[in-house]
Design brief:
Blueprint (H helix, E strand, L loop, with lengths): L6 H4 L36 H7 L6 H10 L4 H18 L2 H17 L5 H13 L3 H14 L4 H13 L3 H14 L3 H13 L3 H14 L3 H17 L3 H14 L4 H13 L3 H14 L3 H13 L3 H21 L5 H10 L2 H14 L3 H13 L3 H11 L7 H13 L3 H14 L7 H14 L2
Helix pairs in contact: 2-4, 2-6, 2-8, 3-4, 4-5, 4-6, 5-6, 6-7, 6-8, 7-8, 8-9, 9-10, 10-11, 11-12, 12-13, 12-14, 13-14, 14-15, 15-16, 16-17, 18-19, 18-20, 19-20, 20-21, 20-22, 21-22, 22-23, 23-24
């Protein structure tokens, strides 16, 4: 699925996928004159925080050696825990989260009081597991013990964002800006504008983040986001250039490979897009990579190749259910489009209880539509777009719901907005959107 939506950065951000409030919120550009930490793209919300919070003590193996040598070093245990969180984000290995939790709780056992590093780590871990209420609690504890920790405010901003508390998240981002105007800080500031559809400001701040980047990871992330933002404005060639620039410095970066796949698919370079998706999956089989490749293959008539990706997704979903963790938006949309819409509704409603974020509202809307509950679906779709977020997929979903409810004028407006800037916003739904718009226009 070409998920050029905010979930990509916020869940990292948790799987790009990059998926609300009910009113449009505004926040002046002058607020972010200093900077903030960056949200990474629908699953990896804490990757950058993890990188920033771990002390510069060397690699994972060096941290493991240090805690063996100095088992009473609370800071080393906290850094090791954060390193495990980061590793789990890049390997998609849930077992690594268990190692992270053990290390972080060992840090707290060694130093129960004023242990900001362990609280930050546990907040990042909770966010990675989509337990955003717990992430918020841990972040608040961290900012209470160290009100000058920019990383703590980054985790706080992540939690507020995913809990749909957008004004509070903006304030946390501003505080981070004031404390440390680094690349992750500017990236988060960029995201606050992206959420509200103010793409020009988002791009400007993301370029500042790129200029301030001090690591390969920060530069790769900046190019990934800039590629996604270019797609949102219909500049597919720029999207491709950004991804390729990033890949020259980090040729094995899975997020950049997936960004290039989306750009190539939007340009009609489907064979190269398939190759990029496969390369990204070979690095890390994240759900949005599998879904993106599967739906691209399906759009090309390659049924067996598509089903192979879907089979892996179903296996991942079985593991998620066994672990009783809330579903991510990719899983909900996959179930709505390729499985049981009623089951997708149940997944979405469960997710909304702990993550009332705009992308989850959109996924819930689409699931409700599939289940024939369009009046409820429209309310969810409106919440998904309440901030003014520029998402062709969100617009398409709402248009189909509006059409089902007999409001063709509203459906036409959303379809035209979706197709105007991203004519190939999705390998399957874009063609359906064009056909639906034509039917509406031909209706007497």
């Amino acid at each position: 699925m070409h998920n050029n939506t905010p979930t990509s950065r916020s869940t990292w951000l948790g799987g790009r996928r990059i998926r609300g409030a009910v009113v449009t919120l505004s926040l002046g550009a002058a607020l972010f004159t200093i900077g903030a930490i960056g949200l990474a793209p629908d699953g990896n919300t804490t990757d950058q925080a993890a990188q920033r919070s771990a002390p510069a003590r060397g690699s994972l193996s060096a941290l493991q050696a240090r805690v063996k040598l100095m088992p009473k070093d609370a800071g080393a245990w906290a850094a090791l825990g954060m390193a495990y969180v980061q590793q789990a984000r890049t390997t998609a290995d849930p077992a690594t989260y268990d190692r992270a939790e053990r290390a972080l709780r060992r840090s707290l056992a060694v130093q129960p009081d004023d242990n900001t590093g362990a609280q930050i780590g546990l907040g990042a871990l909770a966010a990675a597991r989509h337990d955003f209420p717990s992430a918020l609690d841990r972040a608040r504890r961290a900012t209470a013990t160290d009100p000058y920790s920019s990383v703590a405010y980054g985790v706080l901003a992540d939690a507020y964002t995913q809990l749909g508390q957008y004004p509070a998240s903006y304030r946390a981002v501003q505080r981070m800006n004031d404390l440390r105007p680094d690349a992750p800080a500017l990236a988060r500031a960029s995201y606050t504008f992206e959420l509200r559809g103010r793409t020009d400001q988002a791009v400007t701040l993301m370029r500042r983040s790129l200029d301030a980047a001090s690591t390969t990871g920060e530069r790769s992330f900046a190019h990934t986001v800039l590629s996604t933002l270019a797609l949102q404005t219909g500049d597919t060639h720029q999207a491709l250039r950004e991804a390729e620039t990033g890949l020259r410095n980090a040729p094995g970066d899975s997020a950049l490979l997936e960004a290039r796949a989306r750009a190539r698919a939007a340009l009609g370079q489907t064979r190269q897009a398939v190759d990029d998706y496969r390369a990204a999956i070979a690095v890390t089989p994240l759900p949005h990579y599998l879904l993106g490749l599967g739906e691209l293959q399906q759009s090309l008539g390659h049924k067996e190749q598509a089903e192979a990706q879907y089979a892996v997704l179903r296996g991942q979903e079985a593991i998620r259910r066994a672990g009783r963790t809330p579903a991510d938006t990719d899983a909900i949309l996959f179930e709505a489009d390729h499985g049981s819409p009623s089951r997708a509704v149940a997944m979405a409603q469960e997710a909304l209880r702990t993550r009332p974020f705009i992308a989850v509202h959109d996924a819930c809307a689409w699931a409700l539509h599939g289940a024939g509950r369009d009046a409820e679906a429209l309310r969810q779709a409106d919440q998904a777009l309440a901030l003014g977020t520029r998402s062709a997929l969100f617009r398409y979903h709402r248009a189909v719901i509006q059409h089902a409810l007999g409001d063709d004028a509203a459906a036409r407006s959303d379809l035209e907005a979706a197709l105007r800037t991203e004519p190939r916003f999705h390998p399957l739904h874009a063609a359906t959107a064009r056909a639906l718009l034509q039917r509406i226009d031909e209706t007497p």
